[in-house]
Amino acid sequence: MPLTAHHQHSHDAAPSLSTIRSDVPGIVWPPLSGGMPASLLALMHQLEATQWLTPAQLAAQQARQLAALIQHATVHSPAFRARMESASCQAAQLCTAEGLRALPVLERRAVQSQQVPLRCGEVPAAHQPVHETSSSGSTGEPVSVARTAINQLFWLAFTLREQLWHQRDFRQTLAVIRASLPSAQPITQADWGAPVSLYFATGPAHAMLVSTDVKVQLEWLLRIAPHYLLTYPSNLAALLDECEARRITLPGLRQIRTIGENISPSLRQRTQAILRVDIADTYSSQELGTLAIQCPVSGHYHTMAEGYIVEVIDEQGQPCAPGEIGRVIVTDLHNFATPLIRYDTGDYAQAAAPCRCGRGLPTLQRIVGRERNMVRVNGSRRWPLFGFDQFLEIAPIVQYQLLQHSADLIEVLLVCRETLSAGQQDRLSTLICTSLGHPFRIQFTLFADRIPAPASGKFEEFICLIRP
C-alpha cells in the first residue's frame, strides 16, 4: 500500500544519493568513496536511471547480460550444457523472452541432486570470492548454491534501493525481530548496518530473536520505541494480537517492513487499524536474493529487472496475463558460479499491468504462496479458502495452522484462549470442510502458547505435506 501522508518525510529529511556522506577527508561534495562502497555507489546511480527505462529497453539490456551468462555457463557448467543439448537449444535463441521459454525449467530437485555438476568449474576472478548459501527449506526442499561477490553487490544495491524508495529517515531507531541472530539476547548497535550505514549517519538499531515470547517482544518494543520495525508477517500478526488484547499501540512507529513470508490483505488492514502504520514488503529468497520490492506508490511489487528475469507462467508454460496466477520462474543474470537459469522458485504470484508510478520495472500484484501451500482435492490443486475469517465466531483462536497429511486428512494446529469444546471442534471441522469443498477428516492438535515455527522463523498458514 502507498505510504500515508503523515509518514512521508520532508524534502530536506528524505535520504537520496545526493545526500550521502563522503569517505574522503576534506571532501564533502560531491562525496567520494573507495573500494566496495564506491562500486556499490556507482551501481546505485545506474539503478536510479534504469528503473525509468521502458519495458522494451530493459528487456534489451537483459538480453545482453543473458548472452554473457549463457556463454559462460555453456563452457563451465556440465549440467547447463546438458540442458541445452537435451532441449536442442542454441545460445543465440535463448536471448529473447520467447526463445528463453524453449529451455525447460530448472527444478529445485535438480539443484539438490547435482548428479551432473551444475556449478561452474571456473568463476571469473573479478566475481570472487564465492560463498555458499542454503535456502531455509521453507518449500520442504532445501537447496545449496554458490553465490559470488557480484551477487552480494546487487543484494546490497536492491536493499538500499528499497530503503530509498520508501524515504525512511535513517536518523531514527530501527528494530529487527527475526531468526538467525548471533545472540539469544537482544542486541543493540550504534547504526543500522550495511548498506545504509556505508553512506548515511543513522540512529541506533536493536534486534531480537523471533523465538522470544511475544509478550516479551512487545515489552521490548515499548521500551526501545522504534520508528521502524522489520519482522515476519506471522510474528507481526502475533504482536497485533497482543496489542489488541492490551489495547495499546506503539507510539512513534512510522512503518513496518516484512520479509520471508506471504502477506495477506487482512494483515495490512489490521496493522493500519491497530498501529496506524503501513507495511512495506520485500520478496526474496536465499538462493537468489531480493527479487521484488513493494512500490511506494501503488503497493504492487516491482521485480528487480537489472538482476533477474522473472517469469510468471501458467500450467502450459505460457506467460500469465495481468490478474492471472502462475509459477514464478527466475533467471539470475549475474551468478557465474551456479547458473540458475529458468529456476523454478516453487512460488506462485499474480501478474500485474504496468505500474502507475511510471517505472518500467515489471510488476507483480502480489506473491500468492508456494506450491505446498495449495490444497489437493480429488487429484487437483487449488488455493485453500478455509474460512479463517469466521474462526473467531466459533472459538477464541489465537493462532492456527493447517497441515494436509493425505488425500482425506487435515491436521489443524491451534492456540486458543480457552479449552476447545467438542461442539466447537465440530463447528470448526464443518466450516473447514465446507470452505475447502471436500469432506476431510479433521484432527485437532492444541498448543498452550505458540505453534512451533521452523528454524527459519517463517510461518505458513496452510502446508500440503503430500509428496508429488
CATH-defined topology of the largest domain: Rossmann fold
State the share of residues found in helices, binned by percent: 25-40%
Strand content: 15-25%
CATH class of the largest domain: Alpha Beta
How far apart lie the N and C ends? 36 Å
Number of domains: 2
- Low-pLDDT runs of 5+ residues are 1-11
CATH architecture of the largest domain: 3-Layer(aba) Sandwich
Q: Which class best fits the helix and strand makeup?
A: alpha/beta
The geometry reads as globular
Keywords:
alpha/beta, GMP Synthetase, Chain A, domain 3, disordered N terminus, 4-stranded mixed beta sheet, 2 domains, 468 residues, Rossmann fold
Task: Summarize the topology.
Elements: H1 35-50, H2 55-76, H3 78-86, H4 97-100, H5 108-113, E1 130-134, E2 144-148, H6 149-165, E3 174-178, E4 187-189, H7 196-199, E5 205-209, H8 214-224, E6 228-231, H9 233-246, E7 255-258, H10 265-275, E8 278-285, E9 289-294, E10 301-303, E11 308-313, E12 325-332, E13 343-351, E14 363-370, E15 375-377, E16 380-382, H11 391-394, E17 397-404, E18 409-416, H12 422-436, E19 441-447, E20 462-464
Parallel strand pairs: 3-5, 3-6, 6-7, 7-8, 17-20, 18-19
Antiparallel strand pairs: 1-2, 4-5, 8-9, 9-10, 10-14, 11-12, 12-13, 13-14, 15-16, 17-18
